[in-house]
Amino acid sequence: VCIGDTMATLHLGQVLSFDGSPFDEGHDAVWHERRGALAVEGDRILAVGPADAMRAAHPAAEVIDHGDGLIVPGFVDAHAHYPQTGMIASWGKRLIDWLNHYTFPEEMRFADPAHARAVAGRYLDLLLDHGTTSVCTYCTIHPASVDAIFEAAEARGMRVFAGKTCMDRDTAPEGLRDSAQSAYDDSKALLERWHGTGRASYVITPRFSPTSTVAQLEALGALWGEHPDCLMQTHLSEQVDEIAWVKSLYPSARDYLDTYEAHGLLGAGGLYGHAIHLEPRERDRLREVGASLIHCPTSNTFIGSGLFDMGGLTREGQIVGLATDTGGGSSFSMLRTMAAAYEIGQLRHRPLHASELLWLATQGSARALHVDDRIGNLAAGMEADFIVLDLASTPAIAQRVAQAGDIWEALFPTIMMGDDRAVTSTWVAGRKR
Ligand code: GUN
Ligand code: ZN
C-alpha cells in the first residue's frame, strides 16, 4: 500500500498486539505472528502484519531484524512517584510511618530544582531500560519538580503524565505544605504551561485526603471542573489504618471515596491508586462514573497493604490499570509488577493469564489513562512506542523456554523471572533510546 515510502522502517521479529481485551475475549483478543513485522514512519506505526507481506508492501523500507525478539507495546506505568526513586526499597514500615519516616524527608530534597532535574532524568532512563515508555507520576509540592519531569520527558520524546502533589494539612510536615490557594494557582499555571505541550499531560494531583484540607480538595475539584480534559490522580483505600484515619479526619463522609466525591474529585478522568479495601457503595460509584482503579501489586505486598480484587473488579466492569507505585513499590520494572499481580491473583484464586498481564501493562494502563487510541498497542496510526523482549534473557529463563509449547508458555517465564536484561531495546516515537 505504501510503495516507495523511503522514510519507513520495517522491524522484523515476533509481534504481539491486541484486537481487544483478553479479560473480555480471552486469547482471541491477541494477535501473534512468529515472523511478523512492524512498519514505522516517523513517530507513528504505519502497519503491522506478517513479515513476508510487509516486506512486499514496503520494498523501500529500511529493515531492522530483531531475530527471535518479541516486539510488544512499550509498558505503561499508570501510577508512580518519581521523587521516591532514591528511597525505593526502604525497610520495615507500613504506610503512614513509611510516609513520615522515608517519603516526606526524601520529597523535601526537591525544594532544590537541580536535585529534581537530576532525579527526573535518572528515573526516566531507568524506566526506558526496563521497557517503560510512558508513566503517570506524582511530583512533589514544588512546581519545579513538575518542570523537571516534563523537561526530562521532552528530551527523551516520552508521553508522560505528571502533576504537582498538593498537601496543605498539618498532617504533612512543615516544609512540605502548600495552601488551598497556592495549590490551585500553581497547579493551574503548570497545567497551562504543560498540558498538551508535545507529549505532556498535566494531572491534577491531591496526594490523598489525609494530607489535604477540605478547602484544598474543593479548590482542586474546582480546577478539575474548569479543565475536565485533564486527568486527576490520588490514593484510595490502600491500608486499613489509613481508612480509619480518613474517617477520623472526615467524620461526616460516608466512606473514603466520599471525601473526594463531595469535593468534585470523582469522575471518569479520575485515577484512584490502590483501591484495595473498597465498600460496596464505593465500587458502585467508581463503576458508574467510569473511574480508573490503579493496581500497584509490588507496593501492596511491600508496604503490607492488602490484596487487590482483580477478579471481582474486572468482572463487574471496572477500568483497571497496572503500576509500579515506585518507591512504595519495590521495582521500576513492569515485568516484575506483572509477576506480583500474578502472585496476588493466585492468593485471591484468580490466576491471571500471561495475555491479561501483558494487556494490563500496556493497553489496560493506556485505557486507564484515556490514551488507548495512541499508546499501549501496535496498530496502524498509533504512536510508535514499542520494545523488543528477549524471551531467553538469562540461563534460568532460557532453559525453561526451551520446553515452551506456545507463545504464552514462552512469555510467562520472562514475566515471572525477567528484569531489564529481558528488554533488548526500547523505541520511543519511532526512535531507539
Ligand atoms: N498514600 C499517600 N501518599 C502515598 C505514597 O507516596 N505512596 C503510597 N504507596 N501511598 C501513598
Ligand atoms: Zn502512590
UniProtKB/TrEMBL annotation:
PANTHER family: GUANINE DEAMINASE. Pfam families: Amidohydro_1 (PF01979), HUTI_composite_bact (PF22039). The keyword Metal-binding applies. GO terms for molecular function: guanine deaminase activity; zinc ion binding. Its cofactor is Zn(2+). Its EC number is 3.5.4.3. One of its GO terms (cellular component) is cytosol. This is Guanine deaminase. Keywords: Hydrolase, Metal-binding, Zinc. The keyword Heme does not apply. It is an enzyme of class 3 (hydrolase). SUPFAM superfamilies: Composite domain of metallo-dependent hydrolases, Metallo-dependent hydrolases. Belongs to the metallo-dependent hydrolases superfamily. ATZ/TRZ family. Residues 71-431 form the Amidohydrolase-related domain. Residues 36-61 form the Aminodeoxyfutalosine deaminase/Imidazolonepropionase-like composite domain. Catalyzes the hydrolytic deamination of guanine, producing xanthine and ammonia. The lineage of its organism: Bacteria, Pseudomonadati, Pseudomonadota, Alphaproteobacteria, Rhodobacterales. It comes from Salipiger bermudensis (strain DSM 26914 / JCM 13377 / KCTC 12554 / HTCC2601) (Pelagibaca bermudensis). GO terms for biological process: guanine catabolic process. It catalyses: guanine + H2O + H(+) = xanthine + NH4(+).
